[in-house]
Amino acid sequence: MSLAFWNGRTTAASEVWIDPGDSGFLFGDGLFETLRVDDGKARDVEAHLDRLYAGLARVRIAIPEDKERLADAVATVAAAAPRPVARLRITITSGRASGRTQGRDEPTRLITAVPYEPPAAELYRDGVAVRLLPQYRIDSGGPLAGLKSLSYQSYRLALERAESLGAFEALLLNVQGKLADGSRSNVALVFPEGIFTPPRNDGCLPGTVRRRLLERGAINEWPLSQEDLAMASEVLLMNSLIGVLPVAKVNGRGIPVGTTAARLRDLL
Fold this sequence. Notes:
Blueprint: E1 3-6, E2 9-12, H1 23-27, E3 30-38, E4 41-42, H2 45-58, H3 67-79, E5 85-93, H4 99-102, E6 108-115, H5 121-126, E7 128-138, H6 153-164, E8 169-174, E9 179-182, E10 186-191, E11 194-197, H7 208-215, E12 220-221, H8 226-231, E13 234-239, E14 243-250, E15 253-254, H9 260-265
Parallel strand pairs: 7-8, 7-14, 11-12
Antiparallel strand pairs: 1-2, 1-6, 3-4, 3-5, 5-6, 8-9, 10-11, 10-13, 13-14, 14-15
């Protein structure tokens, strides 16, 4: 039986229902986190919860569970998750649409897990294709910048466009024309001077793999341009589900697949 954590209790996932007046459903008013689960154990729980609670404070959603309680709920759902690999999602909304103004309703809290198939081994060896899509811009100064917001449609549209062009991922610029992020991953570029990823103030989502590699000094933040993307010796994608994945093509142009992605994965 697939388990879910729903508004303070553990229940069968089939018993979960969404209130049609929920502001997350109606307006995308909420945040989410996606964690990888290997053989019943969720990865990087502390880092994901740190980001979640920081984001909830920014959007003024207060949930009754503290980090320890939510971590326990994550562990319970993860233990019952499909094997060998699952994708666990924490979804928090502000509750019914009246909740923000009248303060009566608790936020909706939902944790679920579904099977996940990681990228094939040959993609880690040979790399993936990406497309730079300048028409999908990130507002690095906007209220949702850096948040894992339920208002996620622009990223989904970018990914769908990239996939329609035969690519694994879309790379996105911010409104100033700086390289900011992927539609579902962070990006890093390799140069002789080091490995660099866009800084948070350029609009990237502060990913958990990115965070761990920054903390270990394996990568550094630096503003990156389209020209930097063209000149990099290697291009890498990072997120909690894929780890670190090398890029073999940018807009159809082949680039070398080196050993950097494998070396960084060894640090995770």
